[in-house]
Amino acid sequence: MPVAVLTILKLCLVGVIYLFLARVVRAVWVEIRTERVGVTGPTGSTESAAAPAVAPVGRRAARKAAKVEKANARPTLKIVEPPGQLGTTFRLDDEVTVGRAPGCAVSIDDTFASQIHARVFQRDNQWFVEDLGSTNGTWVNRKRVHGPMKFLPGDRLQVGNTVLELQQ
Fold it and tell me: Coil, strand or helix: which one is 25?
């Protein structure tokens, strides 16, 4: 091969290596920034463990939050572990996602949870949990979730190091 072609190939390889390193640095930067963000409530203020937060989930739940609770109120997911987030409650809509991403209906501050970790959904008046390809897996009552799994009131859902309990 001519020397000019080899030089161009070397420069392309160096460029690809720099792009790879830039992506790694960006991923680390995003992880560091998200770890510093505290658990915030609907008003934007940081919640304390002493005053549990009720975070409306989904558009329908946000509209219903202003109304008086009816006898057939929606079930909730309540954080029972870790102690720093103990008591934080999320109302369930027909389908919600659980994870670290700000767009998740149940957004948790846990570095062992995936961005979009799992989903909780209702079918035929029964609740189910499904893992969405998370790295560390999703667990219900200490049993790993492989596909949609029934989720009953009182069951505990573990996402990363965060444990949530389904309450009626």
Answer: helix
